Amino acid sequence: MTINIKKCTLEDLRKLQEISYETFNETFKHQNSPENMKSYLERAFNLKQLEKELLNTSSQFFFVYFNNEVAGYLKVNINDAQSEEIGDESLEIERIYIKNNFQKHGLGKYLLNKAIEIAVESNKAKIWLGVWEKNENAISFYKKMGFVQTGVHSFYMGDEEQQDLIMTKTLI
Fold this sequence. Notes:
The chain is α+β, with helices and mostly antiparallel strands. The protein has a single domain (about 5-170), classed as Aminopeptidase, CATH 3.40.630.30. It contains five helices and seven strands, in the order βαααβββαβαββ. The chain has helices spanning about 15-30, 35-45, 45-55, 105-120, 135-145; strands spanning about 5, 60-65, 70-75, 90-100, 125-130, 150-155, 160-170. The protein has a seven-stranded mixed sheet, with helices on both faces. Strand 6 and strand 7 form a beta hairpin. Helix 1 (about 15-30) packs across helix 3 (about 45-55). The longest helix has 16 residues, at about 15-30. The radius of gyration is 15 Å and the shape is globular. The termini are far apart. The model has no long low-confidence stretch (mean pLDDT about 95).
């Protein structure tokens, strides 16, 4: 079993779009209407949007490979790329997804540790993320990894307003 991480570049744009669609669908399609899923996927993961995010120097994307196959990905933000004004001392994990058939291999922890490594290298005191209040598996995982709920914010899935829990882990 080989696990490794590769930073995404513009050459990875289509592969990033593919895994973004796949993992978001696997995670949320059973709890949301097809119309809202379609609306969100088209807005968040169109090639122009992903290219803009890849070119933002305050954001980074990484693929995690399991036995040389892309199994998931991570997106982290600092500074003004963060989706909430949490502060300059923080790094945001905006997206962390593992394909269903690769879960339970420690890959989420592997990506989370990569985010922590980036935060420490960037002299950030905290790492935070938003997680849908109904995503109990993810909430449980983050709690196990030392995150605590520090707030809530709205997340729009198509025309439906949902609540994300803001969870934070202090590093320093």
